[in-house]
Amino acid sequence: MRLRDALPQGLRRRLDFHRRAVLSFAEDTAASLPRGARVLDAGAGESPYRALFEAAGAKVFALDDRRGDGSWDYRGLDAVGDLRRIPVRDGAVDLVFCTETIEHLTDPQDVLREFARVLRPGGRLRMTAPLTFREHQEPHDYFRYTRHGVRLLLERAGLRVVSIDPEGGYFRMMADKVQAAHRVLFAKDRALVWKVLFLVLQPFSMLFFTVLLPLLCGALDPLDRRRKHTTGFLVTAERPA
Questions:
Q1: Backbone dihedral angles phi then psi of residue 45, each to the nearest 5 degrees
Q2: Which of 2, 24, 110, 154 is most buried (CB neighbours < 10 A)?
Q3: Do residue 123 and residue 148 come from a single domain?
Q4: Is the whole-model pTM more than 0.85?
């Protein structure tokens, strides 16, 4: 069992900086919706935010192509399909919500144009875009985005950029990244001599890299005001009225 699995649930959540940022983004989005809003959850995966939006009185249409994690439960989807050809009429949606998806799209510009098509005038897109996230869901992991690249794609799609906010700064980014250090140092395929010589260091490495250093980095993050180093961006755009 990993040390992190033995930690209290509240501390585990606190250490999952990226997940907390995305969840907060979803909660803020749901809180801003009027009752009866029509939401397209694009690239919904296991539809983790359906209950959140429905509790706010929204009508959710969850769409995904099911190319994500093979262990996921996709039964919560309303449709399986390609985001380049969304089965929704023009201007029918109040909000497109798209998290942790754009890096997996082979044609992100085409998909953003589809988002613009299905949004009503004044409707909004709320999206995450990674900058320094690890490779995942391979081989369907294609791109990383700067804030300038995100703006360019959105404007080419005919959307007006409202905000492109970094998830955090340098130290928040390091709080996420440093947690992999122990798994790299003590990988299962290390030579036996390495494992024997450094056996006594493993618990200290696990505690330091998995808990103590991430918490310290998270506490230091307000010191970085420029936010040029970040895990990714929380994006809001809208279809011009």
A1: 60, -120
A2: 154
A3: yes
A4: yes
